[in-house]
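Anyone opening a protein record will find just a pair of labelled lines. A complete record is shown below as an example.
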Amino acid sequence: MLGKLATYLRICGHDAAYALDRGVEADDAVADLAASEGRTLLTRDESLARDVDDAILLTARDVGEQLRELSAAGVDVSIADPPRRCGRCNGPLDRVAAAVDLPTYAPDPADTGVWRCLDCGQCFWKGSHWDDVRERLPD
């Protein structure tokens, strides 16, 4: 239920696992996963939040409002610079030094910083998407 939020949190540098990425849906399995990995559970499910110590209950449906709720709860939601986590899979990012094996649409790393996910290979750089995310984050 918070997949888009997970993407934003990753862009903010947080190690943000998303249960559905792992095929986990049942409340008890989600709670067990969070506990076994020492994660803070973010949820819109009131009963799940009540059952999990230190869970953060979000009420908003809009990701911008969810980010404001997290900020009010003390979570740092500023954009990570340099980028540290893959928005797609949550893997760690590594700065690309040369334009070797980059997709044709990626900029030249000599001109623009480019990072590649060590897990899925996705490439990232500070383009218009970066600016869009920055605008959505609370001040």
The beta strands are 42-43, 56-57, 93-95, 114-117, 123-125. The chain has a mean pLDDT of 93. Helices lie at 3-11, 27-36, 46-51, 63-72, 128-136.
